[in-house]
Structure formats: structure tokens, C-alpha cells
Amino acid sequence: MEKFQDFLAHALLYIIGLEVALMLIKHDMTLVMDIIIFAIARKMIILNVHMWEILVGILAIFILYYLKCYGLSCRFFPNRP
């Protein structure tokens, strides 16, 4: 189980690094939100956190996805006004 957590830690760290590189190239606000979402998910998965911290993390990810789709331009529903 410890090796799997190490693998997830490294994989999510590489994903965050890739998103930062894309953000530097494209200058897109949705990429900033993606980086924040991956960072919150990495903290929830890797660290031993309490149940209330997991719930706050889930709520934060939900709010960020909502803002990403309805507050900014939505990539998941392109035909939506």
C-alpha cells in the first residue's frame, strides 16, 4: 500500500507540473483551476487527513468544478450558453 501511495504522489506531482507548464504556455484560467483541483486531490489522497478535511476537500473540488463550468467557459458542455 505504501508503494501505491508513493506512485500516486509522484504521478500527481508530474500532472501538476505538466499543468503548470501548460499554464505558462497558454495563459488560461481553467488551467489554474485544474492545478488547484489536482493539488487538493493530491493532499487528500497522499496525506493522512481527518474525515472533516476530506469533506472540505470534496466541497472545494465541487466548487472549483462548478466555477470552471458555469463561472468560466465550460469545456464539458460546449453547446451550453
Describe the structure.
By secondary structure, the chain is mainly alpha-helical. The chain has one domain (2-71). It is 79% helix and 0% strand. It contains 3 helices and no strands. It has helices at residues 2-26, 29-46, 51-71. The N and C termini lie far apart (45 Å). The model has no long low-confidence stretch (mean pLDDT 81).
Radius of gyration: 14 Å
Helix proportion range = over 70%
Summarize the helix and strand pattern as letters.
HHH
End-to-end gap: 45 Å
Count the E strands: 0
Low-pLDDT runs of 5+ residues are none
Q: In terms of structural class, how would the helical and strand content be classed? A: mainly alpha
Global morphology:
flat
Mean pLDDT: 81
Helical stretch count? 3
Number of domains: 1
Largest sheet: none
Strand content: under 5%
List the helices and strands and how they pair.
Layout: H1 2-26, H2 29-46, H3 51-71
